[in-house]
Amino acid sequence: MRATELIEIINSLVEQRVPTFLWGAPGIGKSSIVKQIAKERGVGFIDLRLALMDPTDLKGIPFYDKESHTALWAPPAFLPREGEGILFLDELNSAPPSVQASAYQLILDRKVGEYELPDGWAIVAAGNREGDRGVTYRMPTPLANRFVHFEMEVSTEDWRFWAYKNGVNEAIISYISYKNEHLFTFEAKSEAKSFATPRSWEFVNSILNANISKELLLDTLSGAVGREVAVSFLSFIKVMHKLPNIENILSTGSGEYSDEIDVLYALSTGLVSACLRDKNEEYLENLLIYTLGLKGEFAVMIVQDLQRNGITMEHSKAFKEWVQKFAYLLA
Asked: What is the pLDDT of residue 141?
């Protein structure tokens, strides 16, 4: 299931306080979408890594109560006491069985020991699949039955939408648009330590901002996404100097057109990024005029990327002409 679909579903289940488990390969953004949901809802977010805990860490430490002459449990300070939010149990199936067992009551009954989860808090958990070669324990049936389960898949379209919103380097967005298969190259049977995932492309974005020397850049990128992908990415970056002048296109509505596919991917991303940075009605009009001369699939990609990022264009004269020309590709 794609990230955009999961966000909608998990949002609804959080509203109803239904425990949800999100499965998926490492590095594809499972924790990121849960954190995004909490941020968009304006509620608290607590990330618990049960794999790092002992059973007593969750239930609390027993102490003797003089008044009642009984042993009580002192709840841990990291559990919420009030308000609304999402309690995120990340890597739940990486926790030892004894720790998973201590989570049973919290997940289903919303209490453990002397502690009770406030009404405004929902529980969402996540973990890697058993075949992904991560440290995992088979989830006991009683625990599995306490969740609604979903498996997250990698979607290039969803990733590009996220990347534009989060200011990812244009070269990375262009490259992934050109080489979809390099967004995620993880293979469970491979012995490679470095491989491409949405998470490791975030590392690449930071590496490009770190002003690392050209001599060391290939080795550094290889450590993030693997040698083959790093070589291909750096080769792609070299097409950037072939791009027509983006500022001139947005200012005049005219410019050169390329027949090279890699250049067209880089140009399309550059035009969308520039238009999103400066939401100028004249720029949008000129961009639409320019796309009338582009290859159809790139004209459509540009318009759809702008629309997904909140740019409206139905009022534009050029857009009416654009729809007449490219309607057959939208069917």
From this structure: 85
- Tell me which H or E stretch contains 236: helix 227-237
Cα separation of 54 and 56, whole Å?
5
Q: Are 173 and 134 in contact (CB under 8 A)?
A: no
Angle (CA) 171-176-177 rounded to 5° is 95
**H/E element, 5:** helix 3-15
Q: What Å distances lie between residue 109 and 38, 106, 115, 129, 325, CA to CA?
A: 22, 6, 11, 26, 58
Could you tell me which of 273, 272, 279 has the C-alpha nearest to residue 302? 272
Tokens standing for residue 290: 């320019």
pLDDT digits 0-9 by tens, 100-143 = 887 888 888 888 877 889 999 999 999 888 766 666 778 888 88
Distances (CA, A) of 120 to 63, 86, 229, 270: 28, 9, 45, 43
Distance from chain centroid for Cα 280:
28
**pTM for the whole thing?**
0.81
